[in-house]
Amino acid sequence: VTANDPFVPTDATQQIDCTGKPLVRAPEWSGTVAYQHGFTLAGGSQVVVGLDSQIASSQYLYPDFVGSGKDDGFATVNADITYRSRGGRYSITAWGRNLSEEAIYTGGIRYSFSAPVTPQGDPTLFYASIRPPRTYGVTIKVTY
Q1: CA distance 95 to 51
Q2: CA distances to 21, 73, 131 from 110, in Å
Q3: Long-range contacts made by residues 64-67, C-beta under 8 angstroms, separation at least 24?
Q4: For the chain, which has fewer Cβ within 10 Å, the N-terminal or C-terminal residue?
Q5: What is the CB neighbour count within 10 angstroms for residue 32?
Q6: What is the reported pTM?
Q7: Is pLDDT at 42 greater than 60 in this prediction?
């Protein structure tokens, strides 16, 4: 690698032609599918079961438009089951999020001082933030 190599950055500034590029963190398509059903029990209490899925296509995470800064898309599932007392004063919900344990990238940035590893300028380091992994919990509510 020499100083005359066109792929060696000489400073922290760069010019990026965004012509024809998609918006950053904007997948071409995304959506949510959800289903919820309630069952009334003897005595007037209720059990509600819910399931939803979030889906998104690939997206760039940073306006450099380099391959390592592109997320491949995701599909994840959440579920919950709620017991509500008669009259709705008390409820308890058991829930699970990201049950498919998908790594869902929400943004990122490339490390400015790493040398490109490809002629297209793909950086060696790209830091990304992600949503929480599979999580479970219980929520208890009292209305008064």
Answers
A1: 10
A2: 18, 19, 18
A3: 64/14, 64/16, 64/110, 64/121, 64/123, 65/16, 65/18, 65/21, 66/110, 66/120, 66/121, 66/122, 66/123, 66/126, 67/118, 67/120, 67/122
A4: C
A5: 10
A6: 0.73
A7: yes
Strand ranges for 2-120 from DSSP E: 30-40, 46-56, 59-60, 70-71, 74-84, 90-97, 105-110
Tokens encoding 121: 């300028």
pLDDT one-digit tens code per residue, 92-134 = 999 999 999 989 988 888 776 666 666 665 656 778 899 999 9
* C-alpha neighbours within 13 Å on the C-beta side of residue 31: 3
**pLDDT of 9 over the 60 cut:** no
